[in-house]
């Protein structure tokens, strides 16, 4: 083979290899949204109808046929719809592109608006830090502080923490929780005692059930002047969340007062 032909062949191989590597590792992709699921999840209009979960934020859980809704969940979904309506979105990926459930993970941009940040800024999501996807952590934390400063959404007065009326369909008694492992429910009872360590506060409900608040969520309660180990003990409360089992005892983990309400 002539030298010029060899050079040409090597050039073609180099171009194809570079194109492959760029496509495989590029950080941005453009998509259309097929459906908004809730405040931080959409379905993309791609071949797989992929579920996309927004990185760095956590919005209240939406009411569905098999799950109760959290306060402000419908407002979060509505804002997400308004931000994306009629627009193509640009996705920016971080180090991990998929979560344990197979959902795509990305930062979402629509008409130049950083959607993840905007939802937090409006007080309709808490920041969520899961390494190694922390590229825009500081920006999201700044937006969260702005929402707190202006008492927006989930950071507004506790009188605004109104659950969907349909939640009554998911009410169970605390002693029934063991039958609902893995499901989201609503339950209510008196907090009779508590246990606190460096990592967790456990509120015991009628000795049948535990409400668990981990250390990384304590600040969300303190923002409202709530000390869980003193402000809930001795009072009846209502809790919304997914039932889990720990050392043979059912529990619900809560991370914000919108899902743990004192009943006066």
Fold blueprint:
Layout: H1 3-25, E1 28-36, E2 41-44, E3 51-54, E4 57-58, H2 73-84, E5 88-92, E6 104-110, E7 113-114, H3 115-121, E8 126-127, H4 137-149, E9 171-172, E10 184-196, E11 200-205, E12 209-214, H5 218-222, H6 228-231, E13 236-246, E14 249-253, E15 260-262
Parallel strand pairs: 3-6, 9-10, 12-14
Antiparallel strand pairs: 1-2, 1-5, 2-3, 4-8, 5-6, 6-7, 10-11, 10-13, 11-12, 13-14, 13-15
Helix pairs in contact: 3-4
Strand content of the residues, in percent? Answer: 25-35%
User: What level of helicity do the residues show?
Assistant: 10-25%
Radius of gyration: 23 Å
Question: Number of folding domains?
Answer: 2
Count the E strands.
15
CATH class of the largest domain: Mainly Beta
Structural class: alpha+beta
Sheet with most strands:
5 strands, mixed, barrel
Number of helices: 6
CATH architecture of the largest domain: Beta Barrel
Order of helices and strands: HEEEEHEEEHEHEEEEHHEEE
CATH topology of the largest domain: OB fold (Dihydrolipoamide Acetyltransferase, E2P)
Q: What integer is the average pLDDT?
A: 91
Shape: globular
In the predicted model, the low-confidence regions spanning at least 5 consecutive residues are 9-26
Strand order of the largest sheet: 1-2-3-6-5
Give the termini separation: 89 Å
